[in-house]
Design brief:
The radius of gyration is 27 Å and the shape is flat. The chain contains 12 helices and no strands. It has 3 domains: about 10-45; about 55-265, MetI-like (MetI-like fold, Orthogonal Bundle), CATH 1.10.3720.10; about 270-330, no CATH class. With about 325 residues, it is mainly α. Residues about 265-270 and about 290-330 have low confidence and may be disordered. It has helices at about 10-40, 45-50, 55-85, 90-105, 110-120, 130-160, 160-170, 175-205, 215-230, 230-260, 265-285, 315-325.
């Protein structure tokens, strides 16, 4: 660790861990209390849940299949429109913007109903009903996620500094060479975590497909409630099944965020934020108010502090409180 790098303070990390544990305990307590109030008269039929949990397996397989197919198909479309939104030409950029805003600005349920009506009027190839419904759900999820993934790819491509692209062109790399060797290696590391989050969102959004009678997980759960009359038990089974899918995927997101994080990205901002927060707490203890209220935390911090020498204007009380005592030891 270099001399200018700081270890994250231990106390905020302990506070964050305490907040997470407290939130989990609170959610579990509320959930248990809710179930107890619903079932205090007749009790929760655990035996029914154990006997009929396997009835959800066929719907679970269909849910996973349609989620995977629509997600990766939407990724191909989303990358194309996301790249088009980074171009300087107005026509392709405008077309991509219309595509993205159309699917991000309307509810998925409305898109599903619209496609259901279209496929009902115009049945391509006279498909059987089950195949037509699966095709409707697949296209609804694919088109919806393509709009969100396009925005993710656009943000990832534009996050690469323009100076790096200009440097690649200055050494003779063509546009696609710079895209392959300079832009994409950095953009991929940035977009992997939000893309994984998008997969979790599509997995949960697939529960809407029950409305058009696709035999996915939620549809099978509804059939089970009509057959046995155990509404609370069945929907507890359904919730636990979705949690069993979503929680491991959220852990994968956390792993990807650590694994693919670009070193140094956001470090200066995090360091300045921590130092400003610490200085504000010090001012609060000394003066009984925060630094902003008495005009202390008002110094302008240069963008590149390593490349600029501090001037006399930055050696005021506000600058000392922002930068800490180490500033007093710097020669100028």
């Amino acid at each position: 660790m270099g001399p200018d790098e700081e270890k994250p303070p231990l106390r905020p990390r302990i506070e964050q861990l305490g907040e997470k544990v407290g939130a989990v305990v609170l959610i579990v307590a509320v959930f248990v209390a809710f179930i107890f109030l619903l079932t205090k008269d007749q009790g929760l039929d655990v035996g029914y849940m154990q006997a009929h949990w396997g009835s959800l397996l066929p719907g679970l397989l269909i849910t996973i299949q349609i989620t995977v197919y629509s997600y990766f198909s939407g990724m191909v479309i989303g990358f194309g429109f996301g790249w088009m939104r980074t171009l300087r030409y107005r026509i392709p950029r405008g077309l991509a913007t219309i595509w993205v805003e159309s699917f991000r600005g309307t509810p998925l349920f409305v898109q599903l109903l619209l496609l259901f009506g279209l496929f009902s009027y115009y049945n391509p190839g006279n498909l059987p009903t089950d195949s037509r419904l699966l095709l409707t759900g697949y296209f609804a999820l694919m088109l919806n996620t393509s709009g969100y993934q396009a925005e993710i790819f656009r943000a990832g491509l534009q996050s690469v500094a323009a100076g790096q692209v200009e440097a690649a062109k200055s050494i003779g790399l063509p546009y696609w060479g710079a895209m392959r060797s300079v832009i994409m290696p950095q953009a991929v590391r940035i977009v992997v975590p939000p893309l994984t989050n998008e997969f979790i969102s599509i997995l949960k959004a697939s529960s809407l497909l029950f409305y058009i009678a696709i035999h996915e997980l939620t549809y099978d759960a509804r059939v089970l409630t009509f057959a046995g009359g155990k509404i609370v038990e069945v929907y507890i089974m359904l919730s636990v099944t979705y949690l069993a899918l979503a929680i491991p995927l959220s852990k994968v997101v956390s792993y990807f965020e650590r694994r693919f994080r670009i070193p140094g990205l956001g470090v200066q901002q995090e360091r300045l934020t921590r130092r400003t927060r610490s200085s504000t707490r010090f001012v609060t203890r000394v003066f009984g108010t925060n630094g902003t209220a008495i005009g202390l935390v008002t110094a302008k911090v240069p963008r590149n502090r390593a490349a600029q020498r501090p001037n006399l204007a930055d050696t005021s009380i506000s600058g000392i409180f922002l930068r800490g005592p180490r500033m007093l030891r710097r020669p100028w």
